[in-house]
């Protein structure tokens, strides 16, 4: 009987450890969603100190707290405790276009590969300014604007499409996954950029990182390079697209950097 109880205890401890890992992962996603620990603690009715203990794994919430969290964010208890979820799972889609306009900040920094064939390893910095439905995309070198595109953006069921034009440089397009954030402002993520190349005005399509704050390109070059590169196991492929997973990874990177600067 004692051996049986020991086996059950070991099994329970294993279940607890596995559940704790998933719970902590999902709790961190909720903190990212709300912006700060303080906001999440207030929203779920616990102290910030107790929430810190949940996050560190020092203690586990009561069943009523777990049930309340799941009801609040419209998820099942099974999903919350057994499945590592990404941020977009907790987010409520914004159906109202006017509400979607409100989540954009006025200014964003953008990062993408230099299209000049002689500078294949360079990463450009650009600025994307959004004022209601109007937007401006400025490509910079050492804080000097070398190209400027202006236009508007449109919202479809799943995408946001920036249609930009410059008399000197032609057309540029940015296509991003429609944010489904129920937070106050869009932090950033990954999108697709199409514009004439610097070298010979041939069309160029590549990934672009959109960030709510400036990123040190030199210090973060390796990770920016990984985000912007297209990777595939086969030597040829039919099409290229950005996945939610990639967008989520960039979002997490930007969020973590912003927390480090606070």
Automatic annotation (TrEMBL):
InterPro entries: Cro/C1-type_HTH, Lambda_DNA-bd_dom_sf
Entry-linked CDD domains: HTH_XRE
Record-linked PROSITE patterns: HTH_CROC1
A GO MF term: DNA binding
SMART domains linked: HTH_XRE
Pfam families per record: HTH_3 (PF01381)
Full protein name: Uncharacterized protein
Gene source species: Clostridium felsineum
């Amino acid at each position: 009987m004692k051996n049986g109880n020991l086996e059950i205890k070991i099994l329970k401890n294993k279940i607890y450890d596995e559940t704790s890992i998933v719970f902590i992962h999902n709790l961190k996603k909720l903190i990212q969603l709300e912006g700060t620990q303080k906001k999440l603690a207030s929203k779920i009715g616990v102290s910030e100190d107790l929430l810190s203990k949940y996050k560190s794994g020092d203690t586990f919430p009561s069943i009523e707290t777990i049930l309340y969290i799941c009801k609040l964010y419209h998820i099942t208890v099974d999903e919350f405790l057994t499945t590592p979820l990404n941020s977009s799972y907790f987010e409520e889609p914004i159906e109202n276009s006017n509400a979607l306009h409100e989540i954009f900040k006025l200014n964003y920094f953008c990062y993408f590969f230099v299209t000049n064939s002689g500078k294949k390893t360079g990463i450009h910095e650009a600025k994307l300014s959004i004022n209601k439905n109007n937007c401006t995309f400025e490509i910079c070198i050492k804080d000097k604007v070398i190209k400027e595109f202006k236009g508007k953006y449109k919202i479809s069921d799943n995408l946001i499409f920036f249609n930009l034009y410059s008399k000197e440089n032609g057309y540029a397009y940015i296509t991003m996954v429609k944010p489904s954030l129920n937070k106050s402002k869009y932090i950033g993520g990954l999108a697709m950029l199409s514009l004439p190349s610097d070298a010979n005005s041939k069309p160029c399509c590549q990934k672009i990182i959109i960030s709510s704050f400036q990123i040190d390109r030199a210090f973060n070059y390796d990770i920016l390079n990984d985000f912007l590169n297209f990777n595939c196991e086969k030597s040829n492929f039919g099409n290229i697209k950005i996945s939610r997973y990639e967008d989520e990874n960039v979002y997490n990177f930007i969020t973590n950097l912003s927390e480090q600067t606070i």
